[in-house]
Write a structure and sequence with these properties.
heterodimer, A: about 130 residues, B: mainly alpha, 8 helices, about 0% strand
């Protein structure tokens, strides 16, 4: 198939390794510290936003593609990058528009699919 | 076999008998599951690129599809099984964000569809959005003041 020939397999390998390593960092945080998962997610998003604001994270995305954008650090980076782009277009108000605009698709999808999924879900059966 | 007498001997015995230290095993599982989720994202991304879509649109589509899949897997009670096995491997990718929205919503379903499901959805994901969006606003303001991404050239 033409589509499979167009895939860059080295990119795929780098994506797998970098994405895996970012998850290993999270796993070490879970095992070695007493942070709750919610705090770890916050740490990842904030770190991603800071690294994105400094322009460092883009290098990782160029290197590993979705290995860098799919983890939550990539979500933070998308927020920061969106804010920067919008600021250079429309000034101060852009700082408030840009971040949410860049992540709007993900947030809206999470709310919409999340609501539907919890509607169709069956409550957990407790073993008695 | 000689009897175990001291605390230290017992500890050595346990260390010798227990298979791998759990943190190594956890990290290994987190590594390959996390890598696999990212690779699925990369395949979707490649397909979007193959169809000639823009970079940012492609990234959004990847997020939406992964979020959708994990939301429904959480609803079917399958995601927490993956989560137990993979730990951070399924938590750190954007799938964990979707999972963190659906699981509290499911838990509080008995409190009603508006305040139960609608209200409790953001007990875990709320802080993520608060800190993520606040950080992006600060980054934007800093960029406005200094008008440069300071470390871009490193």
């Amino acid at each position: 198939m033409e589509f499979f020939q167009s895939i860059d397999w080295m990119m795929m390998l780098r994506c797998f390794i970098v994405g895996g390593l970012i998850c290993v960092i999270g796993q070490i945080l879970i095992d070695k510290t007493k942070l709750t998962p919610a705090r770890i997610l916050v740490i990842f998003v904030t770190t991603g936003a800071i690294l994105g604001g400094l322009g460092i994270y883009q290098h990782l995305i160029d290197f590993a593609g979705c290995g860098a954008t799919v983890p939550l650090t990539g979500f933070g980076n998308a927020l920061a990058k969106g804010a920067i782009e919008e600021v250079s277009k429309s000034g101060l108000v852009g700082a408030f528009i840009g971040g949410t605009k860049a992540a709007a698709g993900g947030i809206a999808a999470a709310i919409f699919f999340g609501y539907i999924a919890s509607l169709i879900s069956k409550p957990k059966m407790k073993k008695q | 076999m000689k009897p175990i007498e001291t605390q230290k001997e017992y500890q050595d015995y346990v260390d010798k008998k227990s298979p791998n230290s759990p943190i190594l095993k956890n990290c290994f599982n987190a590594f390959w599951v996390g890598g696999l989720i990212c690779s699925i994202g990369q395949i979707i991304f490649n397909y979007c690129k193959y169809r000639g879509l823009e970079l940012q649109i492609s990234n959004t589509i990847v997020s939406i599809i992964l979020i959708g899949i994990s939301a429904f897997l959480t609803g079917l009670n399958l995601f927490n099984k993956i989560g137990k096995f993979a730990g951070a491997g399924s938590l750190v990718p954007i799938t964990g964000f979707a999972n963190s929205i659906v699981s509290p919503a499911m838990e509080y379903k008995s409190e009603g569809y508006v305040m139960g499901v609608g209200g409790k959805m953001f007990t875990v994901a709320g802080p993520v959005l608060v800190f993520g969006i606040s950080a992006s606003i600060i980054v934007g303001i800093i960029y406005l003041i200094f008008n440069t991404q300071t470390i871009t050239l490193v």
